[in-house]
Amino acid sequence: MKKYRPQEFESKWIKVWEEQPDPFQPTKEPKYYLVELPYTSGDLHIGHWFTFTIPDVLSRFKKMQGHDVFFPIGYDAFGLPAENAAMKRGVHPRDWTMANIETMTKQFKTMATMLNWEHMIIACEPEYYRWNQWIFLKMYEKGLAYRGSALSNWCEKDKTVLANEGIENGKCWRCGTEVVQKEIEQWFLKITDYADQLIWPENPEQQWPMSVRVGQNNWVGKSEGVELQFEIVDYKSPVTVFTTALDTIFGVTFLVLSPEHSIISALMDGTLKSSEIEKVKPYVNQAQKKTEEERKIGAKDKTGVFTSLYAVNPLNGQKIPVWVADYVLSSYGTGAVMGVPGHDARDHEFAQKFELPIVQVLKPADSIKDIKIEADGFWDYADIKVDYKDTAILLNSGEYDGLTSSEAKKKLEEYIQTKKIGEIKKQYHIHDWSISRQRYWGTPVPMIHCDDCGMHPVPEKDLPVELPYDVDFTPTGKPPLATNEEWMKVDCPKCGKPAMRDAETLDTFFDSAWYFYRYLSPHYTEGPFDTEEVKKKMPVDIYFGGSEHTLGHTLYARFFTKFFHDLGLVPFTEFADRRMEHGVILGPDGHRMSKSRGNVINPDDLVKEYGADTVRLYLCFMMPYEATAPWSTSSMQGAYGFLRKVWDIYTSGTYYSDEAQENADLVILLNKTIQSVTRDVDAIKMNTAIARMMELVNGWNDATRKAEKPVLSTANAKKFLQLLAPFAPLMTEEIWHQELGEKSSIHSSIWPVADKCKLKEATITMPVQVNGKMRATITVDATDVEEKAVVDVALTDATVKKYTDGKEYKVIY
RNA sequence: GCCGGAGUGGUGGAAUGGCAGACACGCUGGACUUAAAAUCCAGUGCCGUCACUGGCGUGUGGGUUCGACUCCCUCCUCCGGCACCA
Q: What is the ipTM of this complex?
């Protein structure tokens, strides 16, 4: 008997598989399994192993079942971290990224996956990003890519927009300059055009987790309401307000504008006079320094100042004061809110703090007897507690008496439309996707700016616009690409005069929004992807990945697919039939792994010591794919022990033979194991599948020891090895060849099917409950399971008798 | 605050209306060994018992049911996400 030494054969098989073409002939439908495009961060960590091993097991399993499995791999290679790392170490971002790809590829190959390297894509190669540019131009053509402006985190010294992560205590993470909010011109994608389509229906055909669907729907954040004009006293332009609760219009006691509102700008630059300008100015200046994050944190404590302006309620002509406050966001709705403190908690807080009148439209008559009421309403917004004694006034008009809230809303909507003081509007929380970055390491925006005739797209024949290698990508106050003056110069495609390239690059989420199409035909030159291949293999059967991409990546990917659908490139509107979000492997101390904590588990060391099969098996066994739990090397040794036991079984020569007198119970257990492993792997419950196999090995061990001779036929012994093959592909391959004398790969063999005749045991053990409490177990013949017979047996059981004798009982079988 | 998810032994977890704790880790005892490691065997939710029978037990309190970890309601805790969304 040989000792289990994975180091002696693991690398051999990895090499053999790499060199040999796949002899397997698929007979069933194609399957496309996908894991999110890994980022080229440096090293492969245990999390990568976890996220890729489980899909690999599924892939191997489906392949053995005869499917044509496509399980590709590639790299998300553009992005800020490469630039930052490069700056820190003085390496070029491209060289840094390529070195990482090389390292990671080497590490990936030690995992013994069936990943398809032939279809690999690397997002920073012109062959790939040329099609980013192509898609961008298509979107530009359709009006979906446009130049606009939005408030952004801005560093005045570096002259650059900062991501939220790039702000530390309100200051630029690089130079410490205070970050301000500034309107910045940038490229946008009009994802809002697809807002309605991105909302998941109640019962979609796709199996995406409820949490993801709800999260995305909330993010799209559709709400229906009206936009309403409030005239400003002694000023020409009115203020437009969005509300979903038009029926509370009679409860409006003030108007609040965001600090960025155009009326406030007019006050600031003196176009509009205000007697309160000395208070307004510092407030607005200070509000501009706050990030959205800070506004959120300070949200509970309302701030604001009176502008000295008054507005007119379009429904009842009441004059109300206009305030400015940073709890009103310019990024949602119209940046102006009608204050209804009687029915909105935030307005209520604001009114209380600044002693503004609070009015409720609703009057449950008996609760406010001391107030003179002109009409009984039916509005029900009872969650606001109002101190009526001090503040309640009644503005209701008799016209809306007796109506419910929604009836009143409808009537009011008709009224404002005929009077042309407002219109029905849908509002979305989601805003257009800002895709330009003043950065180097990304896809160049394929546009040309001509001083004479304006902005033009780069003609398709001139794609790709290649990213130049030589630029100064350290922050100098202008975009890195602009530092390469030669590269910037280009002839205007319209007038032919000297013009300039666009110096910005695309957000890396653009790259990853469509990569799964490119996998199918990574070198295709006629378009971004081969539509025939798409028809064959898409949509993706299961898309594995992390929950951090719920509101970013997967939403963008869905948007791109819907856009491709509209272009007629793909015949469906959702790219993935099923989504599975993995959990996290924590450090042994129960905290997230991080270099600073020193709790990082290195997979390379584990592979060296225990072999890839052990690491794979444990990753499958330690928890369900969706769970989060700490790593435990000692628990992993249990997986190693299991594999060693299996190894011993197959190499000792005493556990199975061609002429074995088979143990009938063991054969039944084997067939049950085949059944449950098949079911569990299919349902991606790898942990329980392995538990079932462990039970079989224990049973096999016991039976062999008792009989002191082989108890299973070689044919059956092969079946068990096949069940284990997707989990421990290397050891099973070694045994398959060396011990069982097979010539072709175990991974090309046909997945075993349970023998239905060998699933039933001769006797069945049944629990007996009396009054729902377990009292005994009885054993009955498997052929005699009629109710009467079983109950008779149960009633003769001594323990059961004790509880039933002399008592009335009902029999439930 | 809102939304989503989860609370089961010392630990990871299993059971989705019918024997709670499968399978592992850890721990305890034993075998082997000069010894240790490795390996093997036995035990391992709590209480009680020589032992069997028994009682209790799935975050809390209640409900539905012959029967609840599982379904319904209340509350608590933890994790993840977020948008003061007008």
A: 0.94
